[in-house]
Amino acid sequence: MSEHFADIEARIDAVHKLEAVITAMRGIAASRVQESQHHLDSIRTFAATIGAAIGQALAFLPRVEPDAGGTEAPYRHAVLAFAAEQGFAGAFSDKVFDALAPLVEPGCELLLIGDRGLSAADRRGLSVAWSAPMISHPDQATALASRLSETIFRRAAETPLTRVSLVHAVPGGTGLMSVVVKDLVPFDYGRFPLSRTAVPPLITLPPDRLLRHLVEEYVFAELSEAIVLSFAAENEARMRAMIRAQENTGDTLDTLTALSRQVRQQDITEEIVELATASLTQGGSDA
Fold this sequence. Notes:
Layout: H1 3-58, E1 77-82, H2 92-100, E2 109-113, H3 116-123, E3 130-132, H4 141-158, E4 163-170, E5 178-185, H5 207-286
Parallel strand pairs: 1-2, 1-4, 2-3
Antiparallel strand pairs: 4-5
Helix pairs in contact: 1-5, 4-5
């Protein structure tokens, strides 16, 4: 066996090992996408319950105007964006930054989730006011949502925020992923129809205080949903990248296998020629 043939066989073995790693990464990503869907169902049920409660609380109060986040204070805009936490997700973070680009304005604060987004922000010359890692499992979504809620409300208390925008990816399923841009502040009360019943619900808090707590809970639900959707979209992007990588490794294996057969055939032919030549030479010597 020639050294060239041995080198090709070694490359084939290495590609097989790489293919096994790619297959495992694809399987993990697909599993996380499925787990995310189960968590989304629970989060949306919770959000619907809080939304109905907001509709009931609004019935106790005169018309509530959208929360302007402090109309007398200077205009302050914060953008909360969710980028990738890990690699092999294709252009995931770039698509998120493309979507938030129109929102970036002088004095805008960028709050970033996902460590891979830090390098993307640096490439675009964007300053990050605050950042945190993305979750590694859907079970961690509530903890991160709580941390984000506390951060947003604390910053708003220190210096009123006029507007808070949310930018996150949404998995596309059989299609391409999309990026959603929506406002958390000012809070849109118009989304919740008033609930007027013959017997009003019993409450133990003043209506305005109750409504404030419910709004905080609804923002928490919106953040939880954004986290899980972004997590699912990142893993879906990784799954698609692994599918493309599998196709590439398959093509590479086909090429190397064909080359291996060709080289092996050349080696066999050379061995036959050498044996035939040696036999002829030996026969001539005997004569």
